[in-house]
Amino acid sequence: MSQPVRIPSDVDRADRVLGPLTARQLLIVSVTGIVLYATYTVTRSFVPLAVFLIVAIPIGATAAFLALGQRDGVTLDRLALAALRQRTNPRHRVAAPEGIHDVPEWLGDAAMPSPAALRLPAEGVADTGVIDLGKDGVAVVAVCSTVNFSLRTHTEQESLVASFGRYLHSLTAPVQVLVRTERLDLSGQIVELREQAGGLPHPALEQAAFEHAEYLDQLGRATELLRRQVLLILREPLFIGPTDGLGGGSPLTALMAKRKASKRTNVVDEAARRAAETRLARRLGEAAELLSPAGIVVTPLDAGQATGVLASACDPDSLIPPNSGLAGSDDVITTAPEPEWDDSAEDPDDFDTAERYGR
């Protein structure tokens, strides 16, 4: 008879190797303890114990705080390392896939610190909505409808859980379920409601439409309206690695995978990319088929919608909601020249150079 196995809610939690300590925490604490003990052994002949404790206690407490502390599910040592990496990296980045050019001599006097090229994980979005991750593979984003679980009966709830469990058991690669909240802009609906109110067949309906538009306008000015969206992100590498065992991938397997990845050429084979897109489409179809019995509708995003999701993830506090109508980062925006504009008055290369160097 099979026995139940307790699975933690955080499936990405590292394994505990000694009591409540993970391998990373044990390494930080043990290395700090060994260094402090070795320092005490060397200096105990001429440094009093009280003086050594004044220095050693803050160091040990800081190491324990970094190893055991967490914030938003991330250990403090990882946050400290990320803060150090962010501090040492260039602050000013520009979208320049071809690289940063040297500052001309006539701009040398007013030159600020040179910007660095902005390297994003996503290199582009295809017309089908597939996100190109370069050498890391491809990904696709799909929006999922929600199910009101609390209003269902006990039997219906068990059926929903069983349907979702069947999908989880069918997974052959990791997936990401993202629940995101963003500002809800009703200005378009309010304008459309006011424009169509005059064409309603009865004055009472017209008055009700204007009142409803006024209510929505007042609601948007008085409160911050939010909407919630559930996204299913599927990612597929270009090259399929070895399948992890029951206890997860071994350190030797991870080391061999890194060595093989480092030996691969930077040129990505187009056949491998098409094969990855085929596997990704098959996984997306399986997700839609297995989640449909639970009442969850999986709708893949097109190129414009996927670009909007990526833009909002990079700038979540923007007052302008990103959509498919906005221009991309590499799009050239042109306008009709004014009649009195003289093309020979200014050198267009000056503007292009100034924009390239952020002046």
UniProtKB/TrEMBL annotation:
Superkingdom as given in the UniProt entry: Bacteria
Composition bias, Acidic residues: 339-352
Chain coiled-coil ranges: none
Region (Disordered): 320-359
Keyword Membrane appears in the UniProt entry: yes
Bilayer-spanning residue ranges: 21-40, 46-68
Pfam family, one: PrgI
Keyword tags: Membrane, Transmembrane, Transmembrane helix
Protein name: PrgI family protein
